[in-house]
Amino acid sequence: NHEYDNGVDELARRLSKAEFQTVCANYDFSGTALEDLVVPYVIVEKAGRKIGIFGLTTSLRTLVARQNLKGVVYMDAFAAADKWADYLKNTEKCDLVIALTHVGYSGYPDQVCDINLAKESENIDIIIGGHSHTFLKSARVWPNRNGKDVVVVQAGAQGEWVGRLDITFN
């Protein structure tokens, strides 16, 4: 959320120099300087596996000055997660679907957070989270709405800890 502290145009200027793709599936950037710089998802291939990665961030309405969000439109994070995880798993046939989130680890039952996202999801395999600065010494596992395990990790804040998650395919 602090990426917007200097406005959309400044964020776009910085992202235009990035050597990586920025992902965010629950905001519409149409008509803004971010429109061509942010995509909902990416697919990478590693070790012969197809990995779909999509991003979600928290509602910025109460966190960022309104003038710094001109043209940026929030969309429901649960709906966006369902849409893109389903697309990546079932249309793109990804072996693994990862949600990169900035929604916080825990919250109230209907609040968007990593735990609730895991429980309400169907096609997410791993959630790599942020925003709440939660340090999880080891991965947590939550059953999704079909009873399948979703791994959730978060490595604190401000570079104090570096997270590592080893993935083994059976």
- From the spread of the alpha carbons, the general shape counts as globular
| Major sheet characteristics | 6 strands, mixed
DSSP, total strands: 10
Give the overall average pLDDT. Answer: 92
If you compute it from the alpha carbons, what radius of gyration comes out, rounded to the nearest whole angstrom?
16 Å
Helix content: 10-25%
Order of helices and strands: HEEEEEEHEHEEE
Helix/sheet category: alpha/beta
The main sheet orders its strands as 4-5-7-8-10-9
Low-confidence stretches: none
Name the beta content range: 15-25%
Distance, first to last CA:
37 Å
Number of helical regions? 3
Describe what you observe in this structure:
The chain has 170 residues and is α/β, with parallel strands linked by helices. 18% of the residues lie in helices and 25% in strands. The chain has helices spanning 8-15, 77-91, 114-120; strands at residues 22-23, 27-28, 38-39, 41-46, 49-57, 73-74, 96-102, 126-128, 140-143, 149-153. Strands 4-5-7-8-10-9 form a 6-stranded mixed β-sheet, with helices on one face. Strand 4 (41-46) and strand 5 form a beta hairpin. The longest helix has 15 residues, at 77-91. It is globular. The model has no long low-confidence stretch (mean pLDDT 92).
Which helices and strands appear, and what pairs or packs with what?
Blueprint: H1 8-15, E1 22-23, E2 27-28, E3 38-39, E4 41-46, E5 49-57, E6 73-74, H2 77-91, E7 96-102, H3 114-120, E8 126-128, E9 140-143, E10 149-153
Parallel strand pairs: 1-3, 5-7, 7-8, 8-10
Antiparallel strand pairs: 2-6, 4-5, 9-10
